[in-house]
Structures are given as C-alpha cells and as structure tokens.
Amino acid sequence: MEKLGKWTAISSGFLALGVLLFWIFDRVEYLAPTLIFCLIALAITLQLDHRFKGFSFTVLIFAAVTASLFYPHFFIEVGSFKLNKLIVPLLIIIMFGMGTSIGVKDFVGVVKMPKGVLVGLVAQFTIMPFIGFGLAKLSALPPEIAAGIILVGCSPGGLASNVMAYISGANLALSLTLTAISTLLSPLLTPFFMQLLANELVPIDFLGMFWSIIKIVILPILAGLFFNHFAHGKFNWLDNAMPRISMAAIAIIITIITASGRDSLLSIGLILIVVVVVHNFAGYTLGYYGSKWVGLDEKSSRTVAFEVGMQNSGLASGIALEMGRLATMGLAPAVFGPFMNISGSSLATLWQRKTRT
Q1: pLDDT given for residue 51 in this prediction
Q2: Distances (CA, A) of 140 to 8, 146, 261, 280, 332
Q3: What distance in Å separates the CA atoms of residue 321 and residue 298, rounded to the nearest whole number?
Q4: Ramachandran region of residue 190, left (φ > 0), alpha (ψ -120 to 50) or beta?
Q5: Which of 58, 70, 102, 147 suits a disulfide with 32, CB 3.0-4.6 Å?
Q6: What is the pLDDT of residue 106?
Q7: Contact assessment for residue 259 and residue 72, using Cβ atoms and an 8 Å cutoff
Q8: What's residue 146's pLDDT?
Q9: Which pLDDT value is given to residue 111?
C-alpha cells in the first residue's frame, strides 16, 4: 500500500504539472482529462495516508464536479433517461443508511443532555436560516439561486457532522442526538422557515415541502431504525457497505446537480462560493461561541459548531428537485456540500491536535 501511495503521489505531481502547462498554453481539450485524473490520483494518495485520509472523499468529489463542468452532457441524461430522476432514490438510500446507524439510545440523549440538545437545536434552526437570508439579500444573486442559499440554512444537520465530532474528540453522543432530532423536526421547521424567509424569492408550498421531506427523509430513516432494531448484527456486510454506498450516492448527486446548473454556476460561481464560505464559517463560529456563552463545556461547544455549520445539503438538493428548480435552487447545496467537508475536516483535525497537546 505504501508503494502504491508513492506511485499515485508521483503521478498526481506529474499530472498537476501537465494541468499547469495545458492551462498556460490554453489547451482545454487536454486540460480537462488531465485535471480529472490528477484529482483522482491525489484522492487515492490521500486515502492511503492515514494522516490525510479524511480529505480523500472531498478531492474525489472535486474530480466528479470537474468532469461534470467540462462534460455536462454525460451527467444530464443517458439516452432518453434523465439522470436527475436518480437523486430522490439515492437520497432515500442515504437516509435509510442513516437510520441503520442510529438507535433509540441516540434519542435518550435528550434526557441525559437536555441543555446541550436545546442549545444545539435552537442554534441549528436560527443561526443558519437567518444568516442564509442575510447573505441571500446581500449577494444580489438571481432569486431562485438566492433561495437555494436560504434552503441550505433551513436544512437539518448532516451525517458528516457526526464524523467530524468523532475525529475532533467532541461530544459524539450529543452530535448523534442533535442530528437525529433535527432531522425528525425538519418536515415542520424547514418548510416553516422557507415560507418565512424565502417566499418572496420563490413560492413556497408548505404542505408540498412537508410531504417531500417525509418521503425523502422520515420514512427511509424509520425503515432504517426498524431494520437496525430487528436485524442488528445479522447483516454485517450491509453495516460495512452503507457508508461507502452513501458516499458514492452523495458524489453522484453533486455531479448531476453541477451538470444541470453548469451555465448558471459558471456565470455566478465566484459570488456563490464566497457566500457559501461565509455561511459555513458563520455557522461554526456562532455555533461554537454561542454555546460557550450559554455555559456548555468545550466538547459540547465543538459539537454544536459542527451541527450548525454542516448542513444536510443532500436533502436541500432533493427539495430543490421536488420543486422543479434543481438547476437554480440546487446550486448552493451542490457547492456547500463539498466545501463543508473540506472546512469540517480541517477544523476537526485542528481541534484533535489541540486536544492532544
């Protein structure tokens, strides 16, 4: 494995040099495939190095996004089949996987850690929606794209926050509890805040969004919970496979969304990236220092920071699709997802090292 890692590292270096040369000499026909293979080689290198393993998935996402930007026609439809029809089924698989990874004990945390749960939920459904609203107003982006920023803010916490809480040495039990409860509350709170904050940008159908979240999130999670309860330990292969299946599904979803909204993304990409970066870091900062301010301990404050800063961008993408606005409202979730993995991994590693010293 070590030898393979060296070869992929050398390959990624040579490919990076090729990318630079093709960019300088404006040879786009060679630049695109070279960049894609460079990112794939780098992802394999990182995967084989335990110190940077957490970044490999994000780099692979960038490879997929690069492919969809240069060759969007491959990711929009195959024959007469439109690939965006895969998004909801893939989200259902991801949410089923989430259900199999949690149990009743994750909800008992409400009793054991009432203050942490209350602070986390209040922060989750106030900080990100209103920061998203402010950024959408300030950005002057087209209404449907701006509504996507608010949609990210109104979504519940994502599964990635649990991974980052584990890596950083934060309060993992609190993280699992907050993710589970915020997800179960999302059918009511996400449509409520979208109708409150984004209705002037796009018409929001409360009941329609409520049913979309029930269908995409709640029913698959409940199915996963029942599966976990009645078949726990009987299908170890499934327990091992679900995280990889979920990661693959996320990559496919982001690729399809990027291809669908390619033209809009190329025209307003820089502004949207800046907005996403500010939104993400505002979530971390206000989640962490707000928790400290109300008296939570260091580990719990780190947990709330991850829960607030890392949203379920996949769910936001599914809602955008259900609303028929994947190429516009779906752009902010597609950018937010990969970036939050980079920032979350970096923050988790920083806090991990700080804990050890």
Answers
A1: 72
A2: 43, 8, 18, 19, 14
A3: 38
A4: alpha
A5: 70
A6: 60
A7: yes
A8: 93
A9: 63
Please report, to the nearest 10 degrees, the dihedral formed by the alpha carbons of residues 65, 67, 73, 74 taken in order: -110
What are the CA-CA distances from residue 352 to residues 165, 306, 355 (Å)?
Answer: 10, 14, 5
Task: Give the sign of the dihedral formed by CA 289, CA 293, CA 296, CA 297.
Answer: positive
CA-CA distances (angstroms) from residue 173 to 37, 209, 278?
Answer: 39, 30, 28
Q: Provide the pLDDT for residue 221.
A: 83
Q: Are 147 and 136 in contact (CB under 8 A)?
A: yes
Please give the pLDDT value at position 161: 85
Q: Which two tokens stand for residue 75?
A: 């990711």
Residue 268 token pair: 């307003």
